[in-house]
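Feature request, filed as a ticket because there's no other form

It would be nice if the structure record came with a short human-readable summary line next to the tokens. Right now we just get the raw output. Example of a typical job, pasted below so the devs can see what we mean:
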Amino acid sequence: MSQAEKRDQEKHEDNAKGFGKLIESTVTSSYDDLLAIIEARMELVKIEITEKIAIATSLLIIALVLFAGIVYLIATIALFIGELLGHAYLGYLAVSGFFLLLVLIFTKISPELLKNIIHKLLLSSNGKKS
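Raw output as currently delivered:
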């Protein structure tokens, strides 16, 4: 083999090694980028889950405060009616009778009424008309 052939062969081997290094660096870089994308996506999912938990917790707290307010309002209405009727127990009896009447209406007389009311409320909160 002549010197020129040896140089050409060495040059070809160097090009092959350079190409192999290029492929290796590209694959390594792609792998690192993929890991970075996966880590970023995991962080994004954590943030989204945390946000949804925060919204659910705040809605639960608002619902509990609203529930407590409604309980006190109902008790106040019962006491007021009791004052008007002369006995506190009559006010509680009237308010209890009202709620029992609502339960009777929604369960026995017209069970679809409550479902329809809730359905319309949900549709109107989403901006749709039924």
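Something like this underneath would help us a lot:
DSSP finds three helices and no strands in the chain.
The longest helix spans residues 3-85.
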